[in-house]
TrEMBL record:
GO cellular component: nucleus
A GO BP annotation: methylation
InterPro entries: Methyltransf_16, METTL22, SAM-dependent_MTases_sf
Keyword Cell division: no
Protein name stated in the entry: Methyltransferase-like protein 22
Key word Glycosyltransferase present: no
Coiled coil (UniProt feature): none
UniProt keyword annotations, A-Z: Methyltransferase, Transferase
The organism's place on the tree of life at top rank: Eukaryota
Natural source organism: Cocos nucifera (Coconut palm)
């Protein structure tokens, strides 16, 4: 698959890395716009006429890590279909911008339990971990999960501020939820590292936030994704999903036309509609709302947003209960 050129990132080879693993790391510097935070309504309500003083004090104490910090992510420069989770994709960068903006301009993500689906390099979950109580970073395959663990370690200085609890766990969308605690494809030692404990499953079901980036690029994967999404969102606490994607245009023999693979607008064509796949009013459906990226500052400078990146807010409900 294609590679991405990171314009401002410092990319370097990691000495001694095995050839089968991610042997590149990039530091993504951030462009923190303090004026956008100052103008935010949340600051006005909390501090009124003293908001500039509050901003200066909190900037020195809390934001200083962001002013001179960039996420360091170990990744592949290019990837094949089998190891796309080892590459940093633009949808992950825009979703990281969204998480940073919500974290800096509101308290919506403070002290929450969250779960990232198809986390890949773990960038989005790492960004959220600064303010969340617990983050489950999930994907499948030892190489991808090991790389997530390495990236959490690389960014540990940022994570220490709130000492969040980060769990890297295997989650196969084609399998049942909750995961079977008795079966695992890994060795006994690896099972201890990436398998679920019963208490973690209970905590994950109390999550209120789900995140996913660039996880829709084939029909089979889309079906599996919405399947696990239904199983997760129908249990425990009420949840909201923020899904970032990049539309990729290819010629379809079936459609005899150029189509945008990975476009969730196929399911929510009006930008704020329902997707259920059936007419039975008692069955579940998803409600999607397209987020206006014009309201989300670009903190990470490494990519061009263009018109092909989208973020969707997706909720779950039973049709008969709306």
């Amino acid at each position: 698959m294609s590679s991405i050129v990171y314009r401002h990132a410092t990319t370097y080879k990691i000495p001694g890395s095995p050839s089968t693993a991610s042997d590149q790391a990039s530091t993504f510097p951030m462009n923190l716009n303090l004026n956008s935070i100052y103008d935010n309504e949340n600051w006005s309500l909390r501090f009124g006429a003293y908001k500039w003083l509050a901003l200066i004090l909190i900037t020195d104490f809390e934001f200083r890590r962001y002013l001179n910090y960039g996420f360091t992510i170990q990744h592949n420069i290019t990837s094949s279909l089998g190891n796309v989770g080892l590459q940093v994709w633009r949808a992950a960068l825009v979703l990281t911008d969204f998480v940073l903006h919500k974290s800096l301009s509101s308290s919506d993500f403070n002290d929450i339990i969250a779960l990232e689906l198809g986390a890949g390099t773990g960038l989005v979950g790492i960004a959220l971990a600064r303010v969340a109580r617990t983050v489950f970073i999930t994907d499948r395959g030892m190489e991808v999960l090991d790389n997530c663990a390495a990236n959490v370690q690389l960014n540990s200085s940022l994570l220490k501020f709130h000492e969040p609890s980060i769990h890297i766990r295997e989650l196969d969308w084609k399998e049942a939820w909750p995961p079977n605690l008795q079966t695992c494809d890994f060795s006994s030692q690896q099972r201890t590292i990436y398998s679920w404990a019963s208490s973690e499953i209970e905590e994950a079901e109390r999550a209120t936030l789900l995140l996913a980036a660039d996880v829709i690029y084939s029909d089979e994967l889309t079906d599996s994704f919405f399947g696990i999404l239904e199983r997760l969102m129908s249990q425990g606490s009420e949840k909201v999903l923020y899904l970032a994607l990049e539309k990729r245009y290819n010629f379809s023999l079936e459609e005899l036309d150029v189509v945008a693979n990975g476009s969730i607008s196929l399911f929510f064509p009006s930008g704020g509609a329902e997707y259920g796949g059936h007419d039975d009013a008692s069955l579940p459906c998803f409600v999607g709302e397209l987020i206006d990226l014009g309201h989300i500052p670009q903190y990470i400078r490494e990519y061009e947003r263009g018109k092909d990146l989208e973020i969707w807010k997706i909720t779950y409900c039973l049709k008969g209960l709306k």
